[in-house]
Amino acid sequence: MTIKIAKSRRLAGDVQAFNYEVNGTSTHLEWQPLTDPNLSYYEIRHSTSTTVSSDEPTARYSDATTAVEKVPRPANSVNVPARAGTYMIKAYSKGGKPSADFASVVVPTADITSYSQSLTQAEHTAFSGTKVGLTVASNKIYITDGNTGLTNRYDFSNYIQTHDSTVRLVNVRIDATLERKDLTNGFVDALPQLFDDLPTGIVYSSSFNVNDSTNTGFDSVHSRTNHGDCNLIYQVSMTNDDPAGSPTWSDYKQFRAGQFSGRAFRFRVFFRSSTSGFSPEVSALTAFVEYNT
Fold this sequence. Notes:
The protein is an all-beta fold and 293 residues long. It contains no helices and 21 strands.
């Protein structure tokens, strides 16, 4: 049996020929443009994984963070901050439905500028920083109740200070190890709204392949790795003062990776899910402040 899909619910095609080029502090991503008139935009996600198996990246779309929320048609390229890892891309239709599968490309660590100083603040296991709407269990941190509002926050337990009192221009990023967590234990009643409104945004199809999960079926909604509904949003705050004294800190600014000036830096991460009952589950967060002396 095949269910006919209205044009507004028809999927966009899969992206092909996804490539990258690193230029200093930015990476240029480019792909073959889709000619489907139903195409609306592309979404790009990033994983810190650079692992490749059988000539294919092993990163999962569901276990990544959003690098670019929307690249509207007819564009077929975008610049992002330079960082190692796997970039993944999906196309979205005018009805808000993503392509069945993603294309990916690995940016190896060797292609990214290295620095003589690399200072880190690692948060893991107990996650002893300030937690709002988050739970720590089994050495992982996630949203307590599956709330989709942008209120679930983790503040790092300590700041990163440069080696002396100099205000420096530094390169800043946060690396996260995460998975998409199902807080409902797979209960069917966790599906939002209507039967055809699955968390992936793809309508039910009887052609679901149980071997490689290349399509979305009702039984696979909780276990698929192609979801893009969980995300982490990074923020940084800076000071030019002695952080151990009475510093004046800047407001927190949202970033993915980039250059900032200061003497000390503190970090905050918002946990985000657009599907009730699901959460990014993080086993490690590491902030980096890098510069050359």
